[in-house]
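step 4 of 6: structure.
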Amino acid sequence: MKKNFLIALRVFLVLTIITGIIYPLVITLFANVIYPGKSKGSMIYKDNKIIGSELIGQKFTSPEYFWGRPSAIDNNPMPSGGSNLGPTSRKLKNEVQARIDMIKKYHENIPIQQIPKDLLFASASGVDPDISPEAAYFQIDRIAKARKMNMQQKKELYRLLSEYTRRPQYELFGMPRVNVFLLNLVINNIK
Amino acid sequence: MTILEIIQVILFIAVLIALTPPLGKFMAKVFNGEKNIMKPVFGGLENLIYKLSGIKAEEEMKWTTYTWSLLLFNLIGFIVVWLLQAFQHSLPINPQGLPNVTPALGFNTAVSFMTNTNWQSYAGETTLSYFVQMLGLTVQNFVSAATGIAVVVALTRGIIRKTANSIGNFWVDLVRSTLYILIPLSILLAVILVSQGVVQTYSSYANTTTLEGHSQVIPLGPAASQIAIKQLGTNGGGFFNANSAFPYENPTPFTNFLEMLSILLIPAALTYTYGKMVGSTKQGWAIFGAMMFLFIIALSVSLFAEYSHNATFNTSGLMEGKETRFGITNSVIWSTATTSASNGSVNAMHDSLSPLAGMVAMLNMMLGEIIFGGVGAGLYGLLIFVILTVFIAGLMVGRTPEYLGKKIQAFEVKMAMVAVLAPAFIILVFSAISSVIQQGLTSLNNAGPHGLSEILYDFSSAAGNNGSAFAGLNANTDFYNILMGIGMLVGRFGVIIPVLAIAGSMVKKKTSPYSAGIFQTDTVLFIGLLTAIILIVGALTFFPALSLGPVVEHLLMNAGRLF
């Protein structure tokens, strides 16, 4: 019993050093050398300042920008998470209604059934960086109008959206999607 | 569902089946101490660990010594994780200056990681420092998984050895599982995850101003190394609160596929290992077949439920609590896989699943985490049901039940019943208590039948050592932290001890020669009987509770009722 306790203590210590220190350290060294950008959060810089991460969805509310998925945590992941509201929740129903009303302000003539569902329901992480291509195309007229775009500029907007629409990864995994932050960054450059 | 999504489902199952034999074969070699491809890499280290720890590798243990060693080792792990949290503020690598963790939350988290549950009462990014995540949690991710594997290997030896006394050496099984299986696979997965965008850094969180001028804090950390083992070791405790829904934990559809596959990879392959060790791969495939059959039923019901029309929101395929890059199908494959195996990581919020998909997740856990199940834990859990099936079949034909030549007698059946009933008792009794007293009810996030589902789900998760949640329930209260901690302990050791006792009793028996009258355990008939017994036991035990929660909610949802 005492002998086994001492063995337990020693083997615990040794395995802690291997799996708790050496293993994460080796992975960190590898990651920082081979994938310096990705391992540190896929950050986007402007004038040497971080303005966000490619992978972390930001909050967009003004009509000139593409809007992302609704967020239960207001896109501020401290901590991250979803609404956790169930399929018979009155609170969820009210939240969805509020989002419909908000969208209706800018898209007056659109029947409710045509509003893309990912713009009405909150994401799991609260910082989903993507929306579906349908949800992006749905917003194009509003953005063009808010930015007072001419035909040429609107054409450019369409072109950028199609350029930033990602097909399923390796044509096999997941869903088609559009990264909202990256797209909003480039549409600011439309002259 | 689109055609592409159907292909994604088939691809997932096909890859899982294809990887089972090679990995299973490799693991059999590891446990038998034979030459294997990792021996040249880690063989020296293995011997060094034995030397440093004072382990005599050739020394065999009786089941009682094996059990004591396991319990002592786990006790030390528990105490260390609790202490690390209690003194977090004074420890290094804490760039956010996070404070010490309260005793009740620390207790819950320590139990949770020691028992391979990895329930998250805490939120990673706002509660635990990088130091505690690595030296406390990552370590337990490895060793709790290795503990589960050790137990099933010991049970297997109990079945195959004839009139022997010992069932192996716990330290050797622990070290070999960690060194040859978990570490190499984790390194491989972690490297791929980083290449796709999972973070791995010791820098502090980034404070940014967004394009529209809002402020945003972006949490970081050495996540990839922990996520790899969290998926492979059926642990499931996220580095971040949103777990594998958080983009830094699961950034692309490809990482999603790999993480999903990793959930079931080792548990599935262990069935082949088992077949190899007992000398008939058909026995392994029979167990795999029963597991896969139950998995496909669970997956089909969940997919059907999730794509069905929701009258309240007048739409099908609710995107609440799901990520765009995964969509509905990949969220549902994950929810089924993570609850079948006792993984418990999530890529969508289970609280927002449709009532029946949520019910399937619950039932997967209630059945005892045996549809692939936890690494090691799933297989020994299923072997308990095999013993019960053989026993019942024996009663039906009026012969002494035998499994692989070993007589199944009163002691084995009693122990099997303890292992089946202990977790079930926890789920039902603790849920009942929580649903009538104030401390239980104030934590609810949803009203109506969904509220009961939240309580039921969380105790199923604790007793099944799963760790996923209907996360709306605020479990970070003294009441839930302590009650769920007890639930996790009973769910883990209330099964492990009876299983090792069975191993100790079986190993002493002689193996009777094969005769034509023996009930075959590698046939389709047996698979059918086994799955029937699993489902009947589950249905009888839990149907009343489930009918008050998800079933009622499903009916009311179709009537458009809100709560």
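step 5 of 6: annotate
 - Chain B has a mean pLDDT of 94.
 - Chain B touches chain A through 125 residues (CB under 8 Å).
step 6 of 6: archive
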